[in-house]
């Protein structure tokens, strides 16, 4: 089955591929370790807020980054469907192939 998929993939022009993915960030993320010159102390500020994550959904293709959408919170099926229907789909051209990972929300 995988060999058939690889054979089919070889026939798709790379210019037609559109990759979709998401990433999350939290403003309270901070490094646990720091480096400083020998004998000096390393200083950095650590945010103290405990807000929600911010998630960015975006697409990438041969010409660069496609349309994106940022949401507060995690990616859910509803959020992903909204992104595809209202943001990504209107920007797609006929013949483009959308590739995404197997995240449960997809």
List keywords for this structure.
single chain, 106 residues, alpha+beta, Nucleotidyltransferase, domain 5, 4-stranded mixed sheet, 2 helices
Structural account:
- With 106 residues, the protein is an alpha+beta fold.
- The protein has one domain (13-100): 2-Layer Sandwich (Nucleotidyltransferase, domain 5).
- The chain has helices at residues 2-10, 77-88, and strands at residues 17-25, 54-61, 64-72, 97-100.
- Strands 3-2-1-4 form a four-stranded mixed β-sheet, with helices on one face.
- Strand 2 (54-61) and strand 3 (64-72) form a beta hairpin.
- The radius of gyration is 20 Å and the shape is elongated.
- It starts with a helix and ends in a 6-residue tail after the last strand.
